[in-house]
Amino acid sequence: MSKDINSSGHPVLSQIIKLINRDKVNELATTTKVNRYVKSFDAFTHLVVMIYAALSGAKSIRQVVEGFEANVTRLNHLGIAYLVRRSTLSDANKKRTSQFFGDVYKALYERYSSFLSDSKSSKALQKGLYILDSTTISLFSQILKGVGRTPKNSEKKGGIKAHTLLEASCVLPSFVDYSAAAIHDHSRMSSILSLPSGSFAAFDMGYVDYWMWKQFTDHDIFFVTRQKDKMSFTVIENITCSSDDDIVSDQKISVVYRHTTERELTEEEMKHRRGRKPKKRPTVKQTETGTLVLRRVVKKTDDKKGTIAFITNNFSLSASEICEIYRRRWGIECLFKRLKQNFPLKYFLGDSVNAIEIQIWSVMIAYLLTSVISREAKDKMSFSNLVCAIRLTMFSYIDIVAMVVDPLRAWRDLKEAQRKQALAYNPKYIQLSLFDDL
Fold it and tell me: Would you list the DSSP string of 89-112?
């Protein structure tokens, strides 16, 4: 094997795996107890296999196993000493909890989020801005309840929904949770309450919940969202508009919220209850109502033919800045597009909820590690091309970062070596071919 500037003592997959702290992975495996009763196929080996499956685009367990069988002499570089079998991988995807893979992603996020953050955004509006949205992945069968009506001529496919909270200054989701596609988006709005005080959250109209908006205000968390057409509100005051011609109106409004909770009867209430004492303590529903003061900003659309209204609980920023914050919500749509284009989840390696969640978490981990490689290479190559390069050179002994920074450097070094060799035999040598100058 010739040595050049792009050569490496480890395969590309090994260079990616080395970005993971194995001691941390073993610690998480001990915490979640996923290595109990395991002889060979431990949690770290399972993680490496699933990362390979995500990066290679394997469509079946057979393809994953054959990929490792074809490169069995390189397994020691990956830090594993077990050649996975189909039945072993299938059982592990079914029985090993997906929580372990989620914990690995969270540990990697904590380690690399600051490295992947855009330093240029520190002075922009997206500092401290988080975006909440969800994306639905169709399944081949009704493993999880799908969304929408059942087609007349066929059975409705299942679906899993990934609820994602993205930090705008970073390309990585800070929170990911999974549910059946039929579960409504606003069921995961409580994740915003864990954000630091003073943060901004942007989300679309699927997250209209006045009670949760009150919780955000009480926790000093600001939000920006779209107004629904049938939203009922009362105008309290018209705020003076800025000089921006696109701003139609800026108003202070109030909305009425209602929140119903269910609680068990107290001991005092049980004393006044007639009849036989039930085996299970009965419950009672109680409703809380109140008024929430918000801000409504109306802006012209880009084509100037219509208007669009935004709702927020922030009164300090200008109307234009409120509109700009919501415009940056598009960053999470770009994330979903990048994930689905480069790691298409069309073929699953298991038919259980746990196996599907493991595969999605593995895609998220692979996306994170690939983003680290891209940032180390200073984004010299588009993300799609980088994923393609990794997929084609998975077990090749090249320095992936050096190759991405300057793909033709190895070629130039090779042609220079050929020139020197030719000159050694023929001092009158001028040029080997018409393409020596490449």
Answer: HHHHHHHS-THHHHHHHHHHHHHH
- Within a domain: residue 83? yes
Asked whether residue 242 is domain-assigned, the answer is yes
Structure tokens belonging to residue 132: 């909440």
Please state, in angstroms and rounded to a whole number, the distance separating the CA atoms of residues 115 and 135. Answer: 26
Q: CA nearest 108: which of 354, 367, 331?
A: 367
206/184 Cα distance (integer angstroms): 8
Instruction: Determine whether 90 is exposed, middle or buried from the number of CB atoms within 10 Å of its CB (0-12, 13-18, 19+).
Output: middle
Q: Looking at 284-438, list the stretches that DSSP marks H as alpha helix, in order from N- to C-terminal side.
A: 319-327, 330-342, 353-376, 383-392, 400-405, 409-425
**Within-domain flag for 94:** yes
Rounded Cα gap, residues 238 and 240, in angstroms? 7
Say if residue 281's pLDDT is above 80: no
Whether 167 and 113 have beta carbons less than 8 Å apart is answered as yes
Asked whether residue 240 falls in the same domain as residue 310, the answer is yes
Give the pLDDT band (50/70/90) at residue 310.
very high
pLDDT interval class at 151 (50, 70, 90): low
> For residues 171 and 236, what is the distance between their CA atoms, to the nearest angstrom?
39
Number of domains in the chain: 3
- In angstroms, the CA 22 to CA 19 distance is 9
DSSP state of 206: G
Q: How do strand 129-138 and strand 307-312 relate by DSSP bridges?
A: unpaired
Contact present, 213 and 313 (Cβ < 8 Å): yes
Residue 369 and residue 396 in one domain:
yes
Q: Which domain holds residue 417?
A: 408-438
Which of 42-46, 244-248, 313-317, 368-372 is predicted with the least confidence, judged by mean pLDDT?
Answer: 244-248
Question: Is 358 in the same domain as 438?
Answer: no
A 10 A CB-CB count for 63 gives 14
d(CA 56, CA 63): 9
Nearest CA to 372 out of 5, 18, 7, 8 is that of 18
Q: Is residue 205 part of a domain?
A: no
CA distance 23 to 16: 16
Asked if 187 and 208 count as a contact pair (C-beta separation under 8 A), the reply is no
Q: What are phi and psi of 295, to 5 degrees?
A: -120, 135
Do residues 420 and 396 share a domain? no
